[in-house]
Fold these 2 entries.
Entry 1:
Amino acid sequence: VFKRFVEIGRVAFISFGPHAGKLVAIVDVIDQNRALVDGPCSGVRRQAMPFKCMQLTDFVLKFPHSARQKCVRLAWEKENINEKWAATRWAKKIEAREKKARMTDFDRYKVMKAKKMRNRIIKHEMKKLQKMSSKKGK
Amino acid sequence: MAGEKAAGEKKPGEKQPAEKAPAEQKTSQKDAGEKKKKVKKHHASRNPVLARGIGRYSRSVMYARKALYKRKYTAPETKPRATIIKPVGGDKNGGTRVVKIRKMPRYYPTEDVPRKLLSHGKKPFSQHKRRLRASITPGTVLILLTGRHRGKRVVFLKQLGTGLLLVTGPLAVNRVPLRRAHQKFVIATSTKVDISGVKIPKHLTDAYFKKKRLRKPKHQEGEIFDTEKEKYEITEQRKTDQKAVDSQILARIKQVPQLRGYLRSTFCLSNGVYPHKLVF
C-alpha cells in the first residue's frame, strides 16, 4: 500500500516554505514531526524540517544516520540525483507548469495557433476513419 | 545697493566665495580682450549683515565703500520708439495717423485686486515632466485598451512632446493608422520589433494629430452646424506619411515568424484567464 517510506537517505521534495521546490535528503529523524534534513547539492542548509512540507520521492541514498554534509554530498553525486530527478515525470510536470506561467502574450498566440492546427489535423483523420468505417458497415 | 542694479548685465552673485575672485578676474580679462564692453563679475555684498534687513554701514559710508563717486551712469541717448505711424484704410483712405505703441490701460478695476501669494513649482502643462514606463521602448508591441481600436495590438514608435505615444498598426495589418495613444491606457507586452533604423518623419508632432475644430459663428444659431467638420476626411499628407512609416516597419515585421498574424489578432479574456496572473 505504501511504497515510499521516511528513512535515512530518502530524498524528499520540499513543497512549501522558504525552500519550496528543492530536493533534500533525510539525514535523521528528530521526533514525530521533524527530521534533520540536508541538501548540499540543492542549496538547502542542514536544518530541521517538518515532515508536512516534505513530499517523498522514489530516490534513496546510502549513508549512515547523522552523517555529515560531505558524506551526503558524496552519496548524492554518486547517485546523480539531480539528473535522475530532472528525468522524472514529476519534475517535467513542474517545469511545464512554470513554462506555462511564464508565457508572454506572443507565446500564447503561437500556442493557440499550434493547437488549432493540431486539432484540425486530428479532426481530419478522425473524420476519415469514421467515413471508412461507415462505408465498411454498409 | 540701488546703484548696482543699473550696471548689472550678468546675474549678480549674492555670495561668491573669495576663491572665485581670481578665477573670475582671469576670465574677465580674457573677455575684456574679446569684448571690451563686458562688465566684470559682481563683488559680494560690501555691507555685512548684522541682523535681517540691517547692515553694518550707513548709506554715506556705503557710498564711499562702493566708490560710487567714480561711477557715472547716464541715460541711453536714444529712447525706445513711443509711437508708430500707420496708414489710414477704410472710409477715410489715404493719409497717415500716429498710433502709440504702448497704450494706457482701457480699464481700471474699482477695487484693487489683492496680490496673489507666491506659489512654488506649479508649472503649466507644457512644462510638465514627461515620464515613460521602462517597459515601453521603441518597437514594443502594445495592446490598446480604450478607444475604437481597443484590444488591438500595435507597434510603438515614439513618445511625443505632450507625453502621448505615437503608435501605428501598421495600417495594412490591423487598420490602425499613425495615431496617438495614452500611456495609461495601454498594456506593454514584452514583444519587441527592431525599429532601430526606422526614420520617423519629423513633422509628426502633437500639432499634426490635434483635432481641428472650426468655430466661426458668423451665421445665426441655425446655420452653425454646417461649417463644423462632422465627417473626418483623411488628408493626402496622412496617407503619404502612413506609407512612409509603414513600409519600413512591415519589412521588419515580416522577418519575425508569426508576428504579422499576432498583430492582426485582438486581445481578449476568457474563462480562467486573469490579467493579474498573465505575463505580458
Entry 2:
Amino acid sequence: ESVAHFDRAVLLFQAWLNEKFSPELLENKSELVECVMEQLMHMEENLQRVRKGDLKASVHRMEIDRIRFVLSSYLRSRLQKIEKFFPHVLEKEKSRADGDPSFLSPEEFAFAKEYLANTEVYLKAVALRHMPPNLQSIDMLKAVPEPCLDSFVFLRVKERQENILVEPETDEQREYVVDLEEGSQHLMRYRTIAPLVASGAVQLI
Amino acid sequence: MFCEKAVELIRELHRMSDGQLPAFNEDSIRQVLEEMKALYDFIYIFDSFIISHNSATEGKSELIPTIKFRHCCLLRNQRCITAYLYDRLLRIRALRWEYGSVLPTTIRFHMCAEELEWFNQYKKSLATYMRSLGGEEGLDITQDMKPPKSLYIEVRCLKDHGEFEIDDGTVILLKKNSQHFLPRWKCEQLIRQGVLEHVIS
C-alpha cells in the first residue's frame, strides 16, 4: 500500500512541476488529484491513532503538509492559468473533439465559465453600456492575450527521442534536428517539445 | 488632445506597480465616456450632415480622414477604459488570495459597487470550486502558500485577537505582544491578516 502511495506522490510531484513551468494549461489530472486527496485523508486518520508527542507523529505531519502543499500549489497553478487565459481556455474546451482528452475538469470548466460571465457582466455594467452603440461589446478572444508557447523551458529527457525538429532562431540559421538522449537536460522553446510533455517523454524542471 | 484622460487612467495604475488598488476614479471614467459620446456625435451627426449637404465629391472625401481619426480615438478610449477596469479586477482578485474573503474596510472604500459585486461572485465561484475537490469537504487551496519548513513556529501577537484553539484542544489567548510557539499551519492565515508575526531568531 505504501508503494502505491509513493508512486502517486511522485506522479503528483511531476505533474506539479510540469504545470508550474509550462506556459499553457496542461491536460487535467482529476483522477490523480482524487487519489492524492484520498491518500491525505488516510494519512490524517492514521495520524489520529498515533500517540501524541510520538516522534513518528511529527514525521507523518510533515509528510502530510508537504503533499498538501504540492497539491494546493498544483491546483493554484492551474487556476491562475485558467483565469489568465480564460477566453482561450474556454474556446479550446468548446472546440475539442469528443474523443480528445479534456484540459479542464468539470469543476474547472464551471469556474472558467463563471469567471467569463462575471467579468463580462462587470465590464458592461460599469462602462460598455455607457459607450456609443457600436462600441458596446468587446471580443474577449482578441482582448485577452494567449499563452506564449515560444517561451523557453528547462527540461529533462525521460524517454529517448529522435529527430526532433528545431525551428531556426535567426534568419541565418536553418531548421535542424536533434536527438534527445535519456537523462539529458535542455533549454528549448516550449512549442517544440509540447507534445512530449503531454506524453510524459520529457519532464519540465 | 483626445484620449488624454484615458491615458491618464492607465498611468495612474502604472504608477502603483506593487499591485495596490487606488480609489476608483469615477470622475475620469465619466469624462472619457463623455468624450466618447462627443466623438460619436461628431461622426454620426456633424460629419454626416456635412457629407449629405455637400454635393461636391471632394468635400465628402476630405472628411474621411477626420472620420477615421475620430473613430480611432473612440477605439483608443474604449481600449484604455477596459484596460484600466480589467487591471483593477486583477488587483482585486489578488486581494482574495492575500486577505481572505473579508476585505479590510480601507480597501473596500476604494472599490465601486460593481467591483464589490465582482469580488463577491469571484469568492463564491472559488469557494464552490474548492469544495468540489476530492470526496468530502474539499481543499482550501488559499492555504499552504509556502512550502512547509518546520512544524512549529515562533509567533508574536500584533493585536488582541482573543482565544485561539489548536488541534489538540488547548486554547491560547492571543494578547497583543504575547509570544507563542504554535503549529505553522494554524498560523498561516493569521500571519497574512497581520494578527500574528513570524519571529525568526
